[in-house]
Amino acid sequence: MAHRSRLVNWLVVLAVFAGPASAALEQPGSPPPVDAELKAYLMQTVAQADSFEDRFDAEVWLMDMSTRMRPYLPNERERLTFLRQVHSEARKAGLKPDLVIALIHVESLFDRFALSRVGAQGVMQIMPFWKHELGRPEDNLIDLSTNLRYGCTILKYYLDKEKGDMRRALARYNGSLGSPKYPDKVFEYWHRYWYVRD
């Protein structure tokens, strides 16, 4: 019963730069405008090098999400590594890991080698210009932890900028502020596939 109570407590605690975002941000022949405040925020967090408080919590969350994710990442080792890294980077940024998974589902279908037609890379579809803006040209955006750190940091920045309004933050992440299409899709995937019930 104590474990059940702790599980309930954990589930209460748990609750984007996209392919389309990159299209909106990068016009042929001209670099996208860079938000100086976001650049500083990324520089601070991208340089930082786990997130579960308790082994039981880790096992419950990882088992639940691993079962849900099996159709997308059939290799168990790859799947668990992916989930641990998503959880760590999401929690580090103050985001709900299950929502970040939904965003990744929409962005790349969990393909860490995903490359959009305009050059956005990895599971969270990060534009390469960020590496140069941060003075970190050596960063590999195909590397899962690097990609997650960039993506979670950017989403958290927009969430703070929008005073906790996740729909507006997702629209900013996608470069489509003013349109509900992208936030609606992420929320649909979140509630249909990944939402952790309180």
UniProtKB/TrEMBL annotation:
Keyword Signal attributed: yes
Ranges for domain Transglycosylase SLT: 88-178
InterPro entries: Lysozyme-like_dom_sf, Transglycosylase_SLT_dom_1
Signal peptide location: 1-23
Keyword tags: Signal
UniProt keyword annotation of Lipoprotein present: no
Family matches, as PANTHER family: MEMBRANE-BOUND LYTIC MUREIN TRANSGLYCOSYLASE C, SOLUBLE LYTIC MUREIN TRANSGLYCOSYLASE-RELATED
Family membership noted in the UniProt record: Belongs to the transglycosylase Slt family.
Protein name per Swiss-Prot or TrEMBL: Transglycosylase SLT domain-containing protein
